[in-house]
Design brief:
Layout (H helix, E strand, L loop, with lengths): L1 E7 L2 H4 L6 H16 L3 E6 L7 E6 L2 E6 L9 E8 L3 H9 L12 E5 L12 H22 L1
Antiparallel strand pairs: 1-5, 1-6, 2-5, 3-4
Length: about 150
């Protein structure tokens, strides 16, 4: 099972404050522990919402709203994508989040990622095959771009 560990934004992350060296060190240790355990798939911090945008659809037509966004509690400052055996294991990893972050006041949300089998028979073998091809191609293109 894959889960997203979402680090909720706060006034400091939205102000664009960069983490201190001690915080970077403990976050690095945390990521290393997840890597060594074989559960970490990806992890990134996000720029403040002032550098982002939202696209809302009404009647099928998009409208772009530039950041910043005022509802900080609804925003995400970063994420980890992990693969574990249960929700409890994801919770256990989230509980190990470094206490130094946000002076011990960080907000963490855990969300399970949909897997192909979750969609039932509507996700036909042909659609699954097409998605697998797309994912393989996207991975290859990303790897090529790194070179």
């Amino acid at each position: 099972m894959r889960f997203m560990i979402l680090r909720k934004a706060d006034k400091d992350t939205e102000a664009g404050m960069m983490p201190s060296e001690p915080l970077l060190a403990v976050m690095g240790q945390y990521m290393e522990e997840m890597t060594q355990a074989g559960v970490l798939l990806a992890a990134e911090g996000l720029q403040p919402s002032s550098k982002g945008a939202r696209v809302r659809f009404s009647g099928g037509k998009p409208a772009v709203i530039d950041g910043p966004f005022t509802e900080t509690k609804e925003l995400i400052a970063g994420f980890c994508l992990i693969q574990v055996n249960s929700k409890q294991e994801a919770v256990d990893w989230a509980k190990r989040w470094p206490a130094l972050d946000a002076d011990g006041e960080a907000g963490i949300e855990i969300r399970q990622v949909f897997e192909a089998e979750d969609f039932g028979p509507e996700f036909t073998p042909e659609l699954r095959e097409a998605e697998e091809r797309m994912r393989a191609e996207a991975t290859q293109l990303a790897n090529d771009a790194k070179r």
